[in-house]
Amino acid sequence: MSSVWSNIAKVFISTKTGEVPLCNYIKGIVGDGKEISFWLDPWITGEPLKVRFPNLFRLESAKKCKVADRVKSQGNETELVWEWRSVPASAEAADSLQQLTDLLIGVQISDSEDRWFWCSGSAGSFSVKAVKQLLFADQPAGYNFILEWCRWVPAKCNIHAWRLEMDKIPTGEALKKKEHPR
Q1: Radius of gyration of the chain from Cα atoms?
Q2: Model confidence, pTM
Q3: Per-10-residue mean pLDDT for the chain, 182 residues long?
C-alpha cells in the first residue's frame, strides 16, 4: 500500500464520531469470505470481532485470517475451523467462544464476492457528504467563520481582522458587557 493510502487509512481508523470510530460505519457483507478479515473487519457486528472478543483474539494464531478460513459451509451446515495457540480453557474464554459460535451459526458462505456496505448513508453507498454529516453532527451549531488570510497584508493585520470577526477585541463596549472596569 502506498504511503498516501496508508495515511488515509490511518486517519480513517483513528477518527471518531462521538465514541464510534469512523471505520465502524463500513460493514462487510460476506459472500465467499475471501476478502473480509475474520477478526479485523466489522462484518457480523458493528465492530471487529477482535474488539468484541479480545480474549479469543489473543489466542488466535493467524490474526489476519479471512472469514473463509474460519467459516466453512456445507449446504445448510456451518463448520467453524479454529487455529488457536492454546485451547480456550478459562471459563471466560469458553463463554466467549460459545457466544462467538452462537453468533456465527447463521453465517453462510456463497459463491459471490464479498461486498462493503456504508451503514450511515440512506442508500448504503459511501459518499464524502455522508462522512461530513457524521463528522459535523457532533459539533455545536455555533459560528464557524474561516478567515481567508491575505499574504500581502502584515500578519498583525490578519490577526486583528480574525480577532475582530470572532468578537475577541477588548473594546469599551465588549468590556462593559463583561462588567470589566476600565
Answers
A1: 26
A2: 0.67
A3: 72 79 85 94 90 94 95 84 91 93 89 88 73 74 69 84 77 68 56
